[in-house]
């Protein structure tokens, strides 16, 4: 598939995730996410069906944006995974995982649903938590909660070019320590990516 440079423009990117998927020619991604949110691997034939693309095109998409198990079934796709990561997503009594912190706040807004997120601060190894419902940041623990990101990503290798730079931090001090070793990174408060909140309270 054609290589694209993805420009991450903070709040605008978060609100424009659906538009970005269409520009990447992945307009039916929401259907793939909902299949994975059932908590089961997705057969390649079913992936082709829900994406509404020929099987050869489906293979290309999976190779570039997916994760597969030993049976060749899809277990992860563009930020959402059945495989364990440090970003745990609790959704309707199910547990899934995000590739990175930014995926954790993008996906509930894109899918217009509620989930709670438990992640690990990579500097302190202390868990942090937050709850998002549609476009509403309900609460974070602690307050404020910080997130790292970078401005550009390679569409052919999103995990390495973007996801490995996106984490949650329980304090500005921890975030700045990460930034010292990652000078191309950016740090923001999680609340800055939301126009709606419940007062940024702790749960």
From TrEMBL:
Pfam family, one: MerB
SUPFAM superfamilies, per the entry: NosL/MerB-like (SSF160387)
Signal peptide: none
Gene3D superfamilies: 3.30.450.410
Superkingdom per UniProt: Bacteria
Gene Ontology MF annotations: alkylmercury lyase activity
Protein name according to UniProt: Alkylmercury lyase
């Amino acid at each position: 598939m054609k290589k694209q440079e993805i420009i991450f423009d903070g709040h605008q990117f978060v609100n424009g995730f659906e538009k970005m998927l269409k520009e990447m020619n992945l307009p039916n991604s929401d259907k793939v996410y909902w299949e994975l949110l059932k908590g089961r691997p997705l057969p390649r034939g079913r992936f082709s069906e829900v994406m509404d693309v020929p099987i050869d095109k489906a293979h290309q998409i999976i190779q570039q944006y997916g994760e597969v198990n030993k049976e060749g079934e899809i277990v992860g796709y563009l930020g959402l995974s059945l495989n364990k990561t440090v970003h745990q997503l609790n959704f309707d009594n199910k547990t899934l995982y995000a590739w990175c912190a930014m995926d954790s706040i993008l996906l509930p807004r894109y899918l217009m649903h509620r989930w709670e997120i438990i992640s690990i601060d990579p500097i302190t190894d202390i868990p942090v938590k937050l709850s998002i419902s549609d476009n509403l940041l309900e609460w974070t623990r602690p307050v404020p909660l910080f997130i790292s990101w970078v401005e550009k990503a390679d569409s052919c290798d999103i995990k390495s070019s973007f996801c490995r730079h996106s984490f949650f931090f329980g304090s500005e001090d921890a975030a700045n320590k990460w930034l010292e070793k990652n000078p191309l990174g950016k740090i923001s408060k999680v609340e800055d990516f939301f126009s709606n909140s419940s007062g940024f309270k702790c749960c």
